[in-house]
Amino acid sequence: MNLQLHIGSKTLDKKKWESICPEGSFLSLPFKLAFEQHHKSNIKHLYYVADDKENKAIGYAQEFNIRSNRIRDYQKKNKAKGSLNNIVLRLLNLKVVALGNGLLTNISNFSAVELSNNIDFFNSLLLRIQKDLSANKFIIPDHFFKELKVENPNEIFPELIKVVVDQDMHLKISKEWNTFEDYTKALKKKYRSRLKSVMKKSEDVEIKVLTQAELVKHAEKMQELFENVYQKSAFGISPFNTSIYTDLIDSDIPKCQVIAYFLADEMIAFSSELIDDKNLYSYFIGLDYRYNKSHRLYERILNETIKSAISNKKSKLIFGRTAAEFKSNVGAQPIHSEIFVYLKSSVLRRLLRPILENIQASNWVQRNPFKEII
Asked: Do domains 3-165+336-357 and 169-334 have the same CATH topology?
């Protein structure tokens, strides 16, 4: 199999990549290059291409460090137990390779036009990355195996450790919702009243879509607002560089827009969206928590994102994995998610398997805000 691995895009045959890349895909090269350009110091960007008579596939991966304190926070949040956990986790300032984008975890970063043997391809890819990067720890998202058309991967590859992660929250956009008011009318009285309260509390907040010049102007503030959210998160590979938005908003595939929230000319929050042909993806946000409760900022962001999905005539809004109960209040439903961990060291695998397999998705109460099932 002619499988090429490129560490960074300099040696990548960009014409070949684009010829294999599906139309309208998040694998579009300008989109990937933006992540590489704005996250050079903390992430190694990997591009792989299979191109011969029997195989045509492309994929994007990243190598980065996972800090042990973030692993412990996530493990504690999800109630994984074990007396050896803290001892083991002290060892886990780990350098890992993720077969995906650690800054956009619910999007596939692999596409195959043709593969002669899917299992051989996966084994060849891991061996190639191990050889070229001396990598021995991997995170493989469930959507990678879905694209590879491999079901129950931990049964086919018993060395893999399956880890259940927080559900991805999806809101189906009804064809009957032509305006945000239509969505509001579909809610039960209790949730309609809650929405009105959110809009009332935040009525003094000015909301606008930022231009590139405005992104540059507010760059420092946006990074500060993002850091507020990042510091409260239970898990994260590395800080996101909000300067990337200056490149992403020029991208047609996917389309990106950044929405800012101002109070008396001060930016107190921002949200961002990625839009493809069918779906709108809620992306990173930033908040000034001094105003979050008084102005119901986070809930207002959820409402504005729904409004955007409706106005852009999308069939689904992908909210992501955080704050599931908040998102269920506006109608989002959970989608089961999992990742698979491969550790080359059999010793480390034996130590970590019981810890990782014991992690469960966060407990929360599913709300049903609609009068009828959407």
From this structure: yes
Fold of 3-165+336-357: Aminopeptidase (3.40.630)
Q: Is 25 helix (H, G, I), strand (E, B) or coil?
A: coil
Enumerate the domain spans of the chain.
3-165+336-357, 169-334
Indicate if the alpha-carbon torsion angle 319, 323, 326, 329 is positive or negative.
positive
Residue 296 phi/psi, 5-degree rounding, is: 50, 50
Contacts of 265 (CB under 8 A, 6+ apart): none
- pLDDT tens, position by position, for the chain (374 residues)? 899 999 999 999 999 999 999 988 899 999 999 999 999 998 999 999 999 999 999 999 999 988 655 455 545 555 555 445 554 555 556 889 999 999 999 999 999 999 999 999 999 999 999 999 999 999 999 999 999 999 999 999 999 999 999 999 999 999 999 999 999 999 999 999 999 999 999 999 999 999 999 999 999 999 999 999 998 876 556 679 999 999 999 888 899 999 999 999 999 999 999 999 999 999 999 999 999 999 999 999 999 999 999 999 999 999 998 899 999 999 999 999 999 999 999 999 998 899 889 888 888 999 999 998 87
CATH architecture of the domain 169-334 equals 3-Layer(aba) Sandwich (3.40)
